[in-house]
Amino acid sequence: MTSAPDQASLSTLSVGTAGPRIAFLHGLFGQGRNWNQIAKAVSGPDGTDARCLLVDLPDHGRSPWSQTFSLDAYADAVAATLRTAGDGERWAVVGHSLGGKVAMVLALRHPELVGRLVVVDIAPKGYGSLERFEGYIREMQGLPLGELTSRGDAEARFAEPDPGVKAFLLQNLRRDGQGWRWQVNLDLVARDAALGVDSHIADWPDAVDELPPYEGPVLWIAGGDSRYVQREDGDRMRRHFPRTRLFTIKGAGHWVHTDAPEIIVTALRRFVADPA
């Protein structure tokens, strides 16, 4: 049995005051504000081109924690948040990596909420394990929170050589009174990673395969230099999402919206405005 987070209390940040509603879902170890610059650009200079909602997924950012991981529970929590924020309107939902999986499950479980879907560099399949993240998890667990004197001290002690990855992971570090804590539910992620090929975070829920396909328009964005989306994933994607269009961005890796923000903004604006 999984323990769902409080569905009514996911933390969100709003950008824009008018136009279509767009919800942004981040990836593992991220938070809603990772999409802030994209959302500002999509909403336009006066904020009237789109109403964007940047969502902190459960166990991330300022949203509540859960005891076990469940994609279904994550999707249901996002659904409750969108219902509350949307006044009954449908959303364009944009999700990257883990957020892309949540967005897909959301569209399949709650199609009445999703007017169109953007899935960024992830496919509806299991990825085996969290092996790629295990080094990050060990480094985060090894940071002596009780000894830190400043954020600069944390940065100096954190051994990740890629400055972009280091900044991304350390955004989860928050001052707590005189001490420090991880904002992300690091213990939950570590326990899941320890399951190896039985990881739930890396998996795709079998029960979702029994749901009817989502019939709305879907833009599937892949990074040309990423390996998360493979040619053979197309059949499975179209089985769940028959109106899928694949858009591959050359030179972009897994963090497509960081590598090619201008292209992402243009693609989102066109897709959301398309009446089809």
Largest sheet: 7 strands, mixed
User: What strand order characterises the main sheet?
Assistant: 1-3-2-4-5-8-9
Could you tell me the mean pLDDT?
Answer: 94
The CATH superfamily label of the largest domain reads Alpha/Beta hydrolase fold, catalytic domain
What is the first-to-last residue Cα distance? 40 Å
Instruction: Please bin the fraction of helical residues.
Output: 25-40%
What CATH calls the topology of the largest domain is: Rossmann fold
Annotation field: number of helices: 10
Q: What would you report as the Rg, rounded to the nearest angstrom?
A: 18 Å
Question: What would you call the structural class?
Answer: alpha/beta
Give a verbal description of the structure.
The protein is an alpha/beta fold and 276 residues long. The chain folds into 2 domains: 184 residues, Rossmann fold, CATH 3.40.50; 63 residues, no CATH class. 35% of the residues lie in helices and 17% in strands. Strand 2, helix 1 and strand 3 form a beta-alpha-beta unit. The termini are far apart. GO terms for molecular function: hydrolase activity.
